[in-house]
Amino acid sequence: MTIDEIMRKAPVIPVIVIDDVAHAQPLARALVAGGLNVLEVTLRTPAALEAIREMRQVEGAIVGAGTVTNQRELSDALEAGSGFIVSPGLTEALGKAAIRAEVPFLPGIANAGDIMRGLDLGLDRFKFFPAVAAGGLPALKALAAPFGQCRFCPTGGIGPESAAEWLAFDPVLCVGGSWVAPKGAPDEATVERIAREARTLRP
Ligand SMILES: O=C(O)C(=O)C[C@H](O)[C@H](O)COP(=O)(O)O
């Protein structure tokens, strides 16, 4: 699968922080049942890599690693079986390593120079991060204009009230958000309902 195909699977990519690996499978099951099958597990907690291994066993889940900031974390994420890699930013070293590994890669950008660094590497699918703090939809519209070939997954500060507006902008293939995956022990019925609502956000 390409990163473009992954971005088109669902309108929202849950940005997941797992503190207890026992929460991984129930959370993934609930999200997939609600129609959100692309799952980004952030490497922010010691349980993250084990959580990726667990979630991969959930039928229909496409599980990737987020918060991958260097080559060491990239290797760890790949070893855990990550199906895609998300980074809050883009360094040349990480970009080249991800391309070499032939793993779908979604690096973060927040300005024109970041996008140009990505294009130099052959990348044109980006996370716009931190989406709201970096200027919100007006900033992304201005940035996307000179780079017509690029597509984006805005993430950071987006919630159920604002996601539809972002998704209505053509270059936005999906948005990332933590609101669909609240921290702690998941109440599966609630998570499934929130996921189902998120699923309908694309106009
Ligand atoms: O961990 C990373 O790699 C990040 O890029 C940060 C996350 O994407 C945002 O923290 C999610 O933002 P919220 O939906 O506003 O909570």
TrEMBL record:
The record's SUPFAM superfamilies line, in alphabetical order, gives: Aldolase
- Pfam families in alphabetical order: Aldolase
Read off the PROSITE patterns from this record.
ALDOLASE_KDPG_KHG_1, ALDOLASE_KDPG_KHG_2
Instruction: State whether keyword Lyase applies.
Output: yes
Pathways involved: Carbohydrate acid metabolism; 2-dehydro-3-deoxy-D-gluconate degradation; D-glyceraldehyde 3-phosphate and pyruvate from 2-dehydro-3-deoxy-D-gluconate: step 2/2
Q: Which UniProt keywords apply?
A: Carbohydrate metabolism, Lyase, Schiff base
Cited InterPro entries: Aldlse_KDPG_KHG, Aldolase_TIM, KDPG/KHG_AS_1, KDPG/KHG_AS_2
- Origin: domain of life: Bacteria
What's its catalytic activity?
2-dehydro-3-deoxy-6-phospho-D-gluconate = D-glyceraldehyde 3-phosphate + pyruvate
GO MF assignments: 2-dehydro-3-deoxy-phosphogluconate aldolase activity
Nucleotide-binding listed as a keyword: no
What's its EC? 4.1.2.14
Coiled-coil residue windows:
none
Please give the PANTHER family that the UniProt record associates with this protein: 2-DEHYDRO-3-DEOXY-6-PHOSPHOGALACTONATE ALDOLASE-RELATED, 2-KETO-3-DEOXY-6-PHOSPHOGLUCONATE ALDOLASE
Quaternary structure annotation from Swiss-Prot or TrEMBL: Homotrimer.
Q: Which family does it belong to?
A: Belongs to the KHG/KDPG aldolase family.
Return the protein name. Answer: 2-dehydro-3-deoxy-phosphogluconate aldolase
Q: Which organism is it from?
A: Parapontixanthobacter aurantiacus
